[in-house]
Amino acid sequence: MLSPILPDDADVAIRVRGLRNAFGDQVIHDGLDLDVRAGEIIGIVGGSGTGKSVLMRAIIGLQRPAAGTIEIFGEDVAELDAAAARDLRRRWGVLFQDGALFSSLTVAENVEVPMREFLGLPEAIMDELAGYKVAMVGLPPEAGPKFPNELSGGMRKRAGLARALAIDPQLLFLDEPTAGLDPISAAAFDDLIRELRDALALTVFLITHDLDTLHAICDRVAVIADRKVLAVGTIPELLTFDHPWVKSYFTGPRGRAALSGKQAA
Ligand SMILES: Nc1ncnc2c1ncn2[C@@H]1O[C@H](COP(=O)(O)OP(=O)(O)OP(=O)(O)O)[C@@H](O)[C@H]1O
């Protein structure tokens, strides 16, 4: 039930097996397995430094693992030639922890960066598409010509999301998307992620410390501890899991507050 490996007949978007990541003597992951089901929002949790971001970076090819395999949509990423890797790369979008917008480009120009890299469309079409993406993430049209430093934190996150969605990915990677947002903006961002997943049939890999986000939008939650994915399940399933970190995370003061908020909703 709480296994990180799904049954053979499951529709799996990301399959990780035996992953090992290390920096010098520091081993971050060892023998890590994880299946992400197509169409789900999977929350990735774990204490600080357990390697959530490193796992994401390994999956999207920014961190070369020391061992193990990673398959995305059935393709072993280590086996692909440059052209096939580029084709696969087009199928995901990423919102990094700090938004990672180019500060010297406007929001619309930021959204056009992946379009220029992968699509090579005429300028007028890219401008039109960028306007559409800006609207899709709930930003007003006036946000398009603004620079990132002219936006609030919440608007910058939305701009980053618009760029992540620029070329219609099937997979969306989000690294702590609600960090630094006030609770109302964070809840609105959660709603937006769920609406977009539903409307665009996305698979969402979501790293978060935000218990409210886990309760509000995640179909399953994967817990990283002891260099592995320790357990994957719904929150009620994880509440039955006997591990000190899992217990204190979900049933400590913050976990209980999020749980009672969910029950009251
Ligand atoms: N490029 C790198 N070189 C050396 N060490 C690294 C590198 N990237 C990450 N690490 C180390 O790997 C460990 C895991 O980092 P990671 O950022 O994945 O943690 P995390 O679980 O996402 O943490 P947090 O919840 O605090 O964001 C940390 O000890 C970090 O210092």
UniProtKB/TrEMBL annotation:
SUPFAM superfamilies: P-loop containing nucleoside triphosphate hydrolases (SSF52540). InterPro entries: AAA+_ATPase, ABC_transporter-like_ATP-bd, ABC_transporter-like_CS, P-loop_NTPase. PROSITE patterns: ABC_TRANSPORTER_1, ABC_TRANSPORTER_2. One of its GO terms (molecular function) is ATP binding. Residues 14-251 form the ABC transporter domain. Keywords: ATP-binding, Nucleotide-binding, Transport. This is ATP-binding cassette domain-containing protein. It comes from Sandarakinorhabdus fusca.
